[in-house]
Specification:
By secondary structure, the protein is an alpha+beta fold. The chain has helices spanning 3-13, 23-32, 88-91, 115-124, 126-149, 154-169, 177-184, 188-201, 216-228; strands at residues 34-38, 43-45, 53-59, 62-67, 73-79, 84-85, 101-104, 108-114, 172-173, 204-207, 210-213.
Length: 229
């Protein structure tokens, strides 16, 4: 293997479900997969578009969105290094069409995995199917939580997003108003209003492309109160 293929091999060894494959099979896979780069906000694939591949995030983050009412996009999830996308939503139905849109959230590199390759591996290695099923179940659990969250007020949904972002990123979270709006399925104007209220409380401050969590304890307490009401 050349240097590029060796990097891909090491990456596959740590990325489920491909980490479950024998080493020789991962080596063959590393030789055949193509790595692609995407610019910020570039569309990897579009909802309703013809599908013949899934993807594995090598670096960066990918936003998964679907068309909601009107022209509004609703964000389902953000996927990071080592996560597969463009596959699970197609396993139980029409394989030839993407059911969502994937957008690069900043610079992204990803491995393109042809469906024909994945299907052949599934046929020969049942463990791959089991691992993929576990990943799919975990992602469905997250989406179920988001569906329940959609019945809450905009204030609570924004606070929940900020609380989780603080846990993952620290005080300065890389989120725009548009990011928050898409993530909770509301308008930018609504998010602007809610963030203005949180600023008045002294809980946050906002800057271009980021939000500073000034009082994470207050936000966490608010989220706990709402959940326990």
């Amino acid at each position: 293997m050349d240097a590029e293929q060796q990097l891909v091999y090491k990456f596959l060894a740590a990325a489920p479900p491909f980490a479950s494959l024998p080493a020789a099979e991962r080596e063959a896979l590393a030789r055949s997969l193509q790595r692609r780069s995407f610019q910020p906000r570039e569309v990897v694939f579009s909802e309703g578009g013809r599908a013949a591949h899934s993807w594995l995030v090598c670096s960066g983050r990918v936003r998964i969105v679907v068309q909601s009412s009107g022209a509004r996009l609703m964000q389902l999830e953000i996927l990071e290094q080592g996560q597969i996308f463009g596959l699970f939503c197609r396993l139980g139905g029409e394989r030839g069409v993407y059911r969502c849109t994937a957008i690069a959230d900043g610079p992204v590199t990803a491995l393109r995995v042809p469906d024909s390759v994945f299907d052949e591996l599934l046929r020969r290695y049942p463990v791959l199917g089991r691992e993929a099923g576990l990943l799919c179940a975990a992602r469905l659990s997250v989406m179920q939580r988001l569906a329940c969250l959609g019945r809450e007020t905009a204030e609570f949904r924004v606070a929940e997003v900020l609380h989780r972002a603080f846990i993952g990123q620290g005080a300065k979270v890389r989120l725009t108003r548009q990011d928050v709006a898409v993530r909770i399925g509301t308008t930018v104007e609504t998010v602007f209003r809610v963030l203005a209220g949180l600023r008045r409380h002294g809980w946050i401050d906002t800057a271009r492309g980021s939000i500073l969590i000034k009082d994470p304890a207050a936000i966490a307490a608010y989220v706990r109160r709402r959940k326990g009401r």
